[in-house]
Amino acid sequence: MESSRILTFFGTHTRGASGGIYRAWFDAVSGTFSETELAIEAANPTFLAVCPIRDLLFSTSELPATDGRDEGALFAYSVDKWSGDLRLINRVFSGGMNPSFVDCDHTEETVVTSNIRGGSVASFRIKPDGGLQGPSSVIEHETEGAGAHPRLQDAPHPHSIRFDPEGKFALACDRGSDRILIYQKEAETARLMPHKPHAIVTAHGAGPRHCVFHPNSRAVYVLNELNSTVTIFRYDPDEGRMEETETASTLPEGFAGENMTAEIEVSACGRFLFCSNRGHNSIAMFRVRANGRQLKQLGHYSTHGDWPRTIRIDPTGSWLVAANERTSDAYVFRIDPDNGKLTSTGAPLTVINPTCVQFFFQTSARE
After folding, report:
1. CATH number corresponding to 101-356
2. 256 Cβ contact partners less than 8 Å away, ≥ 6 residues apart
3. Calpha distance 174→172 (Å, rounded)
4. Is the predicted pLDDT of residue 367 greater than 90, yes or no?
5. Rounded to whole angstroms, how far apart are CA atoms 154 and 121?
6. C-alpha–C-alpha distance, residues 151 and 136, integer Å
7. How do residues 236-257 score in pLDDT, each as one tens digit?
8. What is the pLDDT of residues 186-234, one digit of tens each?
9. How many Å from the N-terminal Cα to the C-terminal Cα in the chain?
10. 140 CB contacts (<8 Å, ≥6 apart)?
């Protein structure tokens, strides 16, 4: 018997009962998961990146120190796409303390990470066996902290770095300095080089966290963690230039509680944008207009749990998964293809302290 299913991995905080990276199988017809199971033990694998062409998965180890060095680490795994088993290939130091994000370019040749506590970004070449070489480049962010939030903006704290769709440029969202740093990748060496112009300054106290590109590559959306907004930039993929067009709140009008945004996703059709709110515990939904450069807020959907650290749209574009870190659960929502509205399936998935969801591979699996 054959059935369509999607191998899915969950990154976690390994405090409490979490043991590392978990896996489950997602049925894209019914919108349901199998029960989660531990794929491999790992220390604080808070963010994951997948390279499905080469059957690879990369994970951060978001720790301040590794083997006595003031650095976290990145782990490279080979993936058995039929069983979901992970095999460790190698581990490298991340180039700074507490790596919080990892991304792979579309050629599956280069990996980048942001060291949030270390204030740096780094790049790595992927070896033929799928492992990582030592850092090709480590770049310290040398600007001062923005200071609007003394604890979180005392110094540069890059929360993420993500390649654009062409893999030519990478954008680093620095929550601590209220800046987006633009880097150009040197293909021959996998080195990152500061681009000109290099820095985009956001609103004071915004705290840029993550970004996502519109499918047309002509717009990029930056999610600001500390003032609960999303900012649209016109993007030139040939020149690596960004121009701000507008900023929208991720919260409903009149909300007065504490909130921090976490993750941002755009639908494959490019018509809908989704952001997670921690505190309001919701998914903010927007309609995308004007070639990706305008947003209209359409409403909010409860995540049915506490602290939605991550959201992810499945490869079919039909479902959105919201994972709540503090309540150790995840919920699936059907995305209406006409208006983008979300409908919860109502069935929670237990996953301990989830911080990242990555769909890996869709198969016609043998049962």
Report:
1. 2.130.10.10
2. none
3. 6
4. no
5. 18
6. 31
7. 999 999 999 999 999 999 999 9
8. 999 999 999 998 899 999 999 999 999 999 999 999 999 999 999 999 9
9. 6
10. 119, 120, 156
The single-letter code of the amino acid at 290 is A
- Cβ count within 10 A of residue 67: 8
Residue 5 sits at φ, ψ, to 5 deg, of -150, 160
Do 313 and 335 touch, CB atoms closer than 8 A?
A: yes
Rounded to 5°, angle at Cα 358 from 308 and 212 = 75
Residues ≥6 apart with Cβ < 8 Å to 98: 62, 63, 64, 72, 115, 116, 117, 118
Residue 248 and residue 300 in contact, taking contact as beta carbons nearer than 8 Å:
no
In the block, residue with structure tokens 């990748």? 185
